[in-house]
Predict the structure.
Amino acid sequence: MIAKVGDIELDYERSGSGEPLLLIMGMSGTALMWGEPFLSGLREQFDVIAFDNRGVGSSTRLEGEATIAQMARDAIGLLDALEIERAHVLGISMGGMIAQELALAAPERVITLTLGCTYCGGEGSALASQQVIEKLTQAMMSGDRARAIRAGWEVNVSQGFAADEQAFGRFSALAERRPVAVPVVMAQMQACLGHDTNARLAAIELPTLVIHGTRDEMLPVANGHMIAERIQGSRLEIFDEVGHLFFWERPERAAELVREHAAAVRA
């Protein structure tokens, strides 16, 4: 489905029933990449809204640079277009950065905030190693789509899970269905590099859940600890031996945590 958001359009999918839950995907990801096992664990309690950021899928093409704050405004605009006053918000990786900016800009629109495998920038934050960045960049620039998907898989999940060929098959099929152009990925990467909410996170007073895996190569687990320390009263959940895409490696538990987080607020 397509929603008119200001001067752009955003492609979104909506399923389930209950309170609205806005899912914000990360760099190079699409609304498909949440995966059915994770989504099915959310639909039983939430009206789940997953969308493609500008430049992705059938959303409006990206013109020029992208910023995290701009994409946060897009997400708020999508809530406006769908006439949703308040929603639970879950963002992963770059989507978690977008969710931080959304929560800071419009806290009145957020019921609960969940920040998964993400980063706040500033002193003490840690990005992917140069080795990981080079592996991804070389694979993307090779022009070999299969190589790029395989490289993305290997750095986004733990080593043990990467060996699961059935899981990789599902991941690869979703990636092939909705490819993201290399210039868009590079623009998103630059947006992530410019992200810095470090000194502002203390202003977030929303019920916040932070989830991170100890084997995260894209955004090391130290980032999860840092974010949880800066948001007073937040809950930190660490997935041992799990990589960046925790909701692929532990979909049932990840969905359960989001449900528990919302239920605690209602209680």
